[in-house]
């Protein structure tokens, strides 16, 4: 009996993994991104939007630190941050710990843009889940929030 429970637990983890893969694939699809940007009336390349969201999430960062957080080279991040700065979504400020260094921060306009994109994505998701009851949505939200928290809290996973 213990062997059967172990196999079924493995199957449920495999089912969760497959479902997560499908959810992530949907979330990063080009057509979903384009529809989100069109509805939000935003013309921002995908990489720029991701960089802006990560900078907002991580707080003010030096360019090199932002590149490390994103897992890319600074030469990749530099033109993107410059373009976001020209659009008024990112600003450079002096690092209070080292006056020679510069921190990148998301501006009020950048935060408003991210909020607009988030609300638009949320509406798109709600449309896709239109057949779900409020109770089903609440249950799924609770389970996904718990999973996300458990996955984030693992110290051995970066």
Descriptive terms for the model:
two-stranded antiparallel ribbon, 9% strand, Arc Repressor Mutant, subunit A, mainly alpha
Structure report:
This protein is mainly α. It has one domain: Winged helix-like DNA-binding domain superfamily/Winged helix DNA-binding domain (Arc Repressor Mutant, subunit A), CATH 1.10.10.10. Helix content is 72%, strand content 9%. It has seven helices and two strands; from the N terminus they run H-H-H-H-H-E-E-H-H. It has helices at residues 2-28, 30-40, 46-58, 63-70, 74-86, 108-128, 134-153, and strands at 90-95, 98-106. Helix 3 crosses helix 5. It starts with a helix and ends in a 5-residue tail after the last helix.
């Amino acid at each position: 009996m213990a062997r059967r429970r172990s196999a079924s637990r493995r199957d449920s983890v495999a089912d969760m993994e497959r479902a997560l893969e499908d959810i992530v694939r949907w979330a990063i699809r080009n057509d979903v991104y384009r529809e989100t940007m069109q509805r939000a009336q935003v013309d921002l390349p995908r990489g720029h939007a991701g960089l802006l969201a990560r900078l907002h999430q991580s707080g003010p960062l030096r360019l090199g630190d932002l590149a490390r957080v994103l897992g890319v080279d600074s030469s990749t991040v530099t033109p993107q941050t410059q373009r976001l700065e020209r659009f008024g979504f990112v600003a450079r400020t002096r690092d209070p710990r080292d006056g020679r260094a510069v921190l990148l921060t998301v501006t009020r306009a950048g935060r408003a843009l991210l909020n607009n994109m988030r609300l638009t994505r949320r509406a798109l998701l709600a449309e896709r889940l239109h057949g779900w009851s409020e109770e089903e949505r609440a249950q799924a939200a609770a389970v996904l929030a718990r999973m996300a928290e458990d996955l984030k809290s693992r110290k051995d996973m970066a």
